[in-house]
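Let's sit down with a protein and look at its sequence and fold side by side. We need material for that, and I hope you will provide a protein of your own picking. Once you have written the record down, we can walk along the chain together.

***
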Amino acid sequence: MLALAGVQVRHEVRTYFRAGDTVFFTFLFPVVMLAIFSTAFSASGSFGVRPDGSVVDAAAYYLPGMMAAGILLSGVQALGIDIAVERSDGTLKRLAGTPLPVASWFLGKLGQVVVTNLLQVALLLVVARVLFRVPLPTEASSWATFAWVWLLGLAGSALIGIGLSRVPRTGRSASAVIVPITLVLQFVSGVYLPFAQLPTWLQQVASAFPLKWLAQGMRSVFLPESSAAAEVGGTWDLPGVALWLGVWLVAGAIAARLTFRWGRKDA
């Protein structure tokens, strides 16, 4: 099973990078947005101050948000649309008639999300460090926090994407259904706009979804401790980050288990 899963991961990754629209709107989109926001707000002054007295510029401020958005896009958007299309065009039905175990197929999809997002994270870090001179964390504890936030966020996003793939009625409508959901979440979850500046009711709504907590966890890694004062409650609230990402991980697993079918019953 694991050998077949490895083959499936390679197949899924190759297929992913052959789709130009997918590569741009999921893989390169956070990188492009980081470059745009870093350039557009380069003259906006300081977004905070580090312990050594250096300022947090626009590139440093937006990097964690783009990391979080990339995780959401890799899992929810890319995987949700991909599976919806495969269900609609009959690919899943054909796979159901092959010896490929369901577990190997799932591992192949999850492996593709892990590989592509790791490459995306690496690219974001290189662009931020090389082009915009963003200082990266040097403490092992910061990277440990990054690891568990990334793992919980990516796993939850992938499972949510599998469950959400059941919503579009056809593969053609998948992008129209799923992309607006991820786009709205990015605007209300502190990715493009400071979360504390949103209306209270909108903060409460956004706090029920994982991207808000994912972005907050990433900010705790890449921004100085003093920046936590701008968060709701004035702290990074990492236990809350872990709790809510864990809740959505479980919810995504349940949704994926209950909704996934090789083909639609009404097909």
Observations:
- The mean pLDDT is 91.
- The CA atoms of residues 163 and 259 lie 6 Å apart.
- The chain has ten helices and no strands.
- The chain has one domain: 2-259.
